[in-house]
Each structure stands twice: as C-alpha cells, then as structure tokens.
Design brief:
CATH architecture of the largest domain: Alpha Horseshoe
Number of domains: 4
CATH class of the largest domain: Mainly Alpha
Radius of gyration: 32 Å
Number of strands: 21
Helix content: 40-55%
Shape: flat
CATH topology of the largest domain: Serine Threonine Protein Phosphatase 5, Tetratricopeptide repeat
Strand content: 5-15%
Distance between the termini: 68 Å
Number of helices: 28
Length: 743
C-alpha cells in the first residue's frame, strides 16, 4: 500500500482517531464527526496505545515516543492519561478502556480499532457499523464553548456586523483557553530575573537566584518546571506571557528582579498566567545580608515556599472552575494539598484525607495519593491522642505500611513518598532510622523545613535538645509562614524546658500561644509545659493557672504520664524527671486512681481512641488490683503482657513487651491473628494458662483492649490490671528492663 492509500482514520466504538489530521472525533447520528477537544500530547499518547492495543506499553516507551529527547516528569504522562480517560470512558460502565499496570505502564483494552482510508469512508463506516446515536445526542455532547461559538456567529450574521470584532476576540480567547488547557497542571517556567542595580557585573546574582528558584520549584510534588537552558532563551528579550506559554507549553511564568539597597538584598517576584496574562501572585523579599550567599539562600527558600503554596492554590481554583463535578485524580490531589497548606483544623484535615482517598480510587497507581493517605493515617492516629509509637487500630497501621511499600516501589525517589516514610518511622518509634533518613533528605532537599523539625524531634529523644532548638529555628527561617508555626515555637519551648532554661521556655511557649489560627491541638501541652516552667521559677500563681487551663483541655494528665519516648537516652530520662518535679510543684496529680468509678458502662468494644475513662471491668475477664497482683505473680506465675504504652523501658518483673497489643480495631483484624500466633507460643497452647493484660493506667483502654482480645481468642483465665504500670510504679514496686518482643 503506497502513501496515498495509508489508513488515515482508526475507528473504535463511537470514536475515530485521525492520525494525519491530528484529531479525535465522536461519531453521532448518521456518522457525522464531532471534534473532541483534547490536547496534542494526549493524542500522541493515545496513538501509541492504539498502535499496540492489548499490549502493555511501559511508561518509558510512551514518554520516549511522545517527548523524544526531552526530560519530563512522570506526572505529565499521568495528566495526559487522565485527560484521555475523561473523554473515552464517559459512556463506559465496565471500567476504563485504559488499564493501569501499577509501576509499569498502561494497556489499551477498548474496542478493536477498524481502519478507514479517508474521512469520507470513515463517515460511511460509522453510519453503517456503529450503533446509532439518538437525535439530539450529538448536540448535547458538543462541548458547550463550541455551541456558544456557533450561536455567536449566527447572531453576528443576522443582527450586527459591528459585533464581528467582538466575536473574533472571543474566538481568539477561546483558542488560547483551549491551548493552555492542554498544558500540564503546575507547569511553570522561571524566566531570568532582571538585575536592576545598574551594574552589569551584578548579573550573576540575578542569574543565581533564577537557577536556585528553578531547582527548588522542581521539588514541588508533580510540578512540571522548564529547564534552565530553555528559560534563558528569553533573557534580554521582549516578553509576551501568552506567547511564552505557547512556545514552552506551560500555564505559568515567574518573573522577577534583584536589587541591592545598601546592606539589603531586595527581590520582587511575580506569578503570571499564560492564559490571560494576569498577575496571580506577587511578593517582595528583603533580606539583611552580612554574607551574600546566606541572604540569597534565605530569599530563594522563602520564595519557593510562598510561590509553591500560591501555585497550588491557583491550580486548585482552576480545577474547581473547569471540573466542578467530575474531577480527575490529579484535580483531587491539588484540592487536598490546598487544604493541607492551610492552618490545621480537624475539618480541613478530614476533607483533605477524603479527597486523597477519592484520588486513589480514580488512579490506583498514584504514588502521590498513596503517600498522602499514609500521612493522613499517621497524623490522624496522633490527632486522637494515642501518642508516638502507638496505633489505635491495627488495620490502619498495616494499611499505612502497605501504601508506603507500594508507593516506594513505584516512585522510590519521590520526595513525597520519602517524606511520608519519615513520618512513618517517627510514628513507629524507630528513631535511629528516622535520624538517618532525615539527614539524607536534608542533604537532597535542603530547603524543606519539615525535615529539620523531624530530625530535631529525634535529637530530643537522644538527649540533644540543644540541637533540636537550632534545627527548629532553621525550619522557621526556611518557612516563616508555615501553618505549623505554633508547633515550632511549642517545640522550642519544651526543648528549653528539658535543658533547664525556664525563662527561654516561657518566652517560646508564650509566643506559641499568641499565634493566630485554629491549630489548637497542642495547647494543652503548651499550658502543661508553662505550668512546670512557671513553678520552677517561683511563679506559683501563674503555674496553677496554666495547669488549670491544661486540665480543661485534657483532663487525663498525670505527672507520671510524661515519659521519655522510647527510652533512647539516659540524659533525656533525667531531663524528664526534672520536668516532673516542676509539675509536682505546680500541683499536678501524680497518677490516676486505679479504683475510680467513672460511671462508664462496661462493653465488649475495642476502643481505637485509647485515652478515656474506662469501665471498672471487662466482660470475660477478672479485674485485678495492685494489692493482689504482687502476690498473684508468685502464686499463679501468669504470663504478663505489657502493651508498652507510655513506656520508660521498664515494667513488672517477667513481663513480655508486645508493643501496640492493646490497639483497637476489630476481633477479625490482622492484629488479632498475629496475637493468636504469639500467644500460642507464649502459653504453649494452654488456653487455661493465667494471663495478665497490663496497660498504662485506668484512663487508657490499651490494657482492657488486650484483655478483650485474649478472651476472644479463647483464653479462660484472663486478668485485666486496670491500674496498669503507672499504679505499679506509684506503689514503689520493683521493675525490670522491658524490651519489645517481635510478634
């Protein structure tokens, strides 16, 4: 077949792909083709998939064919796939015609394409072979802007020649809108900044800021940032933003200027839309510089943070405008990130997590959605007061591990995935691994403020509170407008408290409380720390007032409930003891009453929120008191299981540490099966062996949850030590070293 008879049209279902005319059509009543608005890149991607229908086409193969000789982010391909699915899957009821093969690529499984030599032959085949479309469907499926365009032209012809100019302007605007709609979301170019000092020898400074900002913006998740070489083609040239957008295929342009004013370095920056030419964001950054490189670094970091958040907000607004009722996965991720960038509130947090879940349902291979859902599970567990290293539900913990493992297999170098992994290590109490990963991330991404905060957290636990303060100060310097600023100042206040610098602690903690915003979840801790600091400086009235406010917010606090997480350092353990002395001076209660009747009805529920007032018994178990327990150890020689909540690394002699064995959830979850296997080993299969479940105190459900789990496994002599390890310690009874056992 020569070139004149090469097929031009591939027909499949209601659609036709014109390989020469570069178009996708929907065939309606009588075979009439209706153009489908879709970007040129998406068409190229679809062409590759159609050519190899039924085969797995790897991501690398598609990107090499569609973007030959160009380095692009993998997110760009995902955007084009989403655009294709929105069109091709509209009338399908049996899933997408483009199948995602996680971690590998895509497979087109739609109707087998038929070939037509010419457009006219395609119309004949479409009319003869394809199911007829009811009258009116073609008009209904014609994109609304095209219907309006047709109406506008008719109106011009009938009523007003003078309106032709306006109609042409509307057409031009529509074309530009369609062009920018093809560009990847979060696509951006940083044009060379201008040197306004009047001295050409200072050009290097403007160029350095341009280069650094380009590099920093590339670390925004899923951002598509034009490389430095292409951007520098526009240096010292007239700049029309719309033309630049068309030439580079980006939605946004960053421009700016640099000027030295005495000892101040001033940088102005603007974010402009290539669709409208309008400024979307602008800011001015002044930095007093004793060392030029240091001041430049601080400015670039602040610009990256502010501009990155602004860019996500702009894209989120665009997705709401263009896809208000039918967002794709990336739209949903953008909307969720926008909520995450706001000051923390429970409502915004829940809304964001719901959006990430919806995104993962639409795109099961989205490593970004997986990483962010893992963060939601980790932070959601901390929100209910369960503390570091302890999970309210086994299934949440297991799902988090699975999501991160899968995301890591798809995108092992993704900053988003690595950042979520860092939080996972923190939530599991694996501080040494957390320190190593945090240092690696800081080396690779030195301008991400969160990594300094996470590293500082572990520095505290290893007895290096001084290092924590400097790391948190660095994180504030990098991101002075973070919605977590209250947390940052609270952390510096607590670290100062551990170091015995009570005046510094009071100053930092007061700064934290003075900050605006609705992120108040840390406030009860801040008031507790303030109470201890005030008491240690002799300000007893203020100490009692601070503790009273803390008690209103969280009535479960005890002196002994402040423990050195994970017992990594003797230095930190001694610092906590000194802090406890301040709490006792302020009038904080030492421990919870193991015999307290809180008026709570008994139930068989596993409580995922571990903090709360417990009933006095647990069905199928025997509640044992401290006065009886000591002798019971000698007489009955029970198996003693410690859930390790609030653990100092010590426990009742002979206890076996099963960390998180008192988690909530359900009796059919993965934790129950793991517990069944471990208990069979510990009891040698003897279901009549006495077992004692030990949690923290009578205001935690961990010990009770464990006791209920054991009875559900069929053990007949289960005892719940309601007073828990806290009551044991308060009675001055002997303890031995406790290590976590594998289970």
């Amino acid at each position: 077949m020569d070139a004149r008879t090469q097929p031009e049209i591939f027909l499949f279902g209601h659609f036709g792909l014109d390989r020469r005319g570069r178009g996708l059509f929907r065939y309606g009543d009588g075979g009439s083709p209706v153009p489908v608005n879709i970007g040129s890149r998406a068409l190229d991607v679809f062409g590759v998939l159609v050519d190899r229908r039924g085969e797995l086409v790897t991501k690398d193969e598609i990107m090499a064919a569609v973007w030959p000789g160009t380095v692009v982010e993998g997110a760009n391909l995902a955007v084009q796939i989403s655009a294709l699915r929105r069109v091709l899957d509209e009338d399908r009821t049996d899933g997408s015609c483009i199948l995602t093969v996680p971690g590998r690529g895509y497979r087109f499984i739609g109707d087998p394409p038929r070939l037509a030599v010419s457009p006219s032959e395609a119309e004949v085949q479409a009319a003869e072979d394809l199911p007829s479309v009811p009258r009116g469907v073609v008009e209904a499926t014609t994109p609304a802007p095209r219907r309006r365009l047709r109406a506008t032209i008719i109106g011009v012809a009938l009523f007003s020649v003078a309106a032709v100019g306006g109609a042409l302007a509307w057409i031009e605007g529509y074309k530009r809108h369609q062009a920018t709609a093809e560009y990847p979301p979060l696509s951006i170019v940083v044009l060379p900044f201008e040197n306004l000092s009047g001295d050409r020898s200072d050009d290097y400074l403007a160029d350095a800021i341009t280069d650094d900002l380009t590099s920093d913006l590339s670390h925004i998740p899923n951002a598509f940032v034009i490389a430095r070489g292409s951007a520098y083609m526009y240096k010292d040239r007239p700049r029309d933003m719309r033309t630049i957008g068309e030439e580079l295929g980006v939605r946004y342009v960053v421009t700016g200027s640099v000027r030295g004013i005495g000892s101040t370095l001033r940088v102005n920056a603007h974010l402009t839309s290539t669709e409208t030419g309008a400024d979307l964001w602008s800011d001015r950054f002044d930095e007093q510089i004793s060392e030029l490189s240091t001041g430049q670094e601080r400015i670039v970091t602040r610009m990256r943070s502010n501009l990155g958040i602004g860019l996500v907000e702009v894209e989120r607004a665009r997705s709401l405008r263009e896809h208000p009722t039918n967002p794709d996965a990336f739209d949903l991720i953008l909307r969720a990130r926008f909520l995450f960038n706001q000051p923390r509130s429970q409502q915004r947090f829940r809304e964001a997590c719901t959006l990430f879940e919806r995104a993962l349902m639409l795109d099961p291979s989205s490593d970004s959605a997986m990483a962010m859902i893992a963060k939601c599970l980790i932070e959601g567990n901390a929100e209910v007061g369960n503390g570091n290293g302890f999970w309210g539900a086994f299934d949440d913990r297991e799902r988090t591990a699975q999501l991160l493992a899968r995301a890591g297999s798809i995108a092992p170098d993704s900053e988003e995935v690595l950042g979520a992994t860092l939080e996972w290590l923190n939530a599991r109490g694996r501080c040494q691994e957390e320190i190593e990963l945090a240092r690696q991330l800081i080396e690779r991404f030195p301008n991400n403020s969160g990594y300094y905060r996470m590293l500082g957290n572990c520095e505290i636990l290893t007895g290096h509170s001084e290092a924590d303060i400097s790391l948190v100060q660095k994180s504030i310097q990098l991101d002075p407008r973070t919605p977590y600023l209250r947390d940052r100042y609270g952390t510096m206040g607590s670290a100062s408290l551990w170091l015995g610098r009570d005046d510094d602690a009071i100053r930092f903690l007061q700064q934290a409380l003075a900050l605006e915003g609705d992120n108040r979840g840390l406030d009860h801790w801040i008031y507790t720390w303030l109470g201890a600091a005030y008491a240690r400086t002799g300000r007893m009235d203020e100490a009692k007032q601070a503790l009273a406010k803390s008690k209103q917010l969280w009535p479960f606090d005890t002196v002994r409930g402040h423990w050195p997480d994970f017992a990594l350092s003797e230095i930190f353990a001694n610092q906590i003891k000194h802090y406890q002395e301040g709490l006792r001076l302020a009038g904080e209660r030492d421990h919870a009453d193991e015999d307290a009747d809180f008026g709570v009805s008994s139930d068989r529920e596993l409580h995922s929120t571990l903090v709360g007032f417990t009933p006095r018994d647990a069905p199928g178990t025997t509640t044992i008191r401290t006065s009886d327990f000591f002798q019971f150890l000698t007489d009955a020689r029970p198996v003693v299981i410690d859930t390790m909540t609030d653990s100092w690394g010590r426990s009742i002699p002979g206890a076996i540490g099963l960390a998180s064995a008192g988690s909530g959830g359900g009796f059919a979850d993965v934790g129950q099966e793991c517990l069944r296997i471990k208990m069979r080993e510990l009891t040698e299969g003897d279901f009549n062996r006495p077992i004692v479940a030990v949690g923290w105190n009578s205001e935690r459900f961990d010990g009770r949850n464990l006791a209920l789990r054991l009875t559900a496994l069929g053990y007949t002599k289960v005892y719940w030590y309601r007073g828990g390890r806290e009551a044991w310690e308060a009675n001055g009874l002997p303890e031995t070293r406790l290590e976590a056992s594998d289970w």
